[in-house]
Design a protein that fits this description.
single chain; 246 residues; mainly alpha; Ferritin; two-stranded antiparallel sheet; 7 helices; 2 strands; 61% helix; elongated
Length: 246
């Protein structure tokens, strides 16, 4: 069913974003507790900090990188179109994901874990848990042969040169930066839909595999918010005579 972009719809999206941000602020405090990972009063209080190779740490590192690109694409399109609906959506995505990225990196600091783990490729935390390579024949960050949009982890689109599911390639980012008007709007909405699909798959992985309750809750919040935004983006694409790429 096609969504109608009414004030009520935008208020609903904004409510999800604000609730997630307020919840996120609380999770940083509770995850840190008295300055130690899993501080007093939370479910992880009796546990040591997650290991560097854990799903908790891997998700925090990978999603921080994933979110950074979403912020970048959102700022690009705000300079390439004057359409208020697309610009408002881009602002919401940039604001939300920049805040979430800060929380994820903050947790790594609290846990005294590196933000980059040497010798470990992207998505290793999901691959190890499921016993699969998750990136098709091209392995991490690419595809084989001339396939520029191979199968990523969980069947998500992974373009040649993209490091994680749903992420745009540098060529796609360059294309977005050169586009304008309706062309920029459509490309942004398509790229961000792919990006959200990959992000949802990663967040669902953390919701299943992570052990820190606050991080699991944040991951589930990401799933709910990004699925709602994908519905909105599908409607915006339809209004422009286009559709998601996959």
């Amino acid at each position: 069913m096609t969504l109608t972009l009414t004030r009520t719809h935008w208020v609903s999206i904004a409510a999800v974003v604000l609730a997630l941000l307020f919840a996120g602020a609380a999770t940083v405090a509770s995850a840190g507790g008295d300055g130690h990972p899993g501080g007093h009063g939370d479910a992880a209080g009796a546990s040591a900090a997650p290991a560097a190779g854990s799903a908790d740490a891997g998700f925090a590192r990978d999603m921080a990188v994933h979110h950074q690109q979403a912020v970048e694409m959102s700022f690009i399109v705000r300079d390439r179109t004057q359409d208020e609906e697309v610009r408002r959506l881009a602002y919401d995505i940039a604001n939300t994901q920049a805040n979430q990225r800060g929380m994820l990196l903050g947790w790594l600091d609290l846990w005294k874990l590196p933000k980059v783990e040497s010798g470990t490729g992207p998505m290793a935390w999901m691959e190890q848990a499921h016993g699969e390579d998750g990136h098709g024949d091209g392995g991490h960050g690419g595809t084989s042969g001339n396939d520029t949009h191979g199968s990523g982890h969980g069947g998500q689109r992974t373009g040649a040169g993209a490091v994680m599911p749903g992420m745009a390639t540098q060529a796609e980012l360059d294309q977005l930066a050169k586009a304008s008007g309706k062309q920029a709007e459509v490309l942004f909405l398509q790229l961000m839909t792919d990006h959200h699909k990959g992000g949802v798959a990663m967040a669902e992985g953390c919701a299943d595999l992570c052990t820190v309750p606050q991080e699991k809750a944040l991951a589930q919040g990401m799933v709910d918010a990004q699925q709602s935004e994908m519905d909105l983006m599908a409607d915006l694409l339809e209004k422009r005579g286009a559709a998601p790429r996959s």
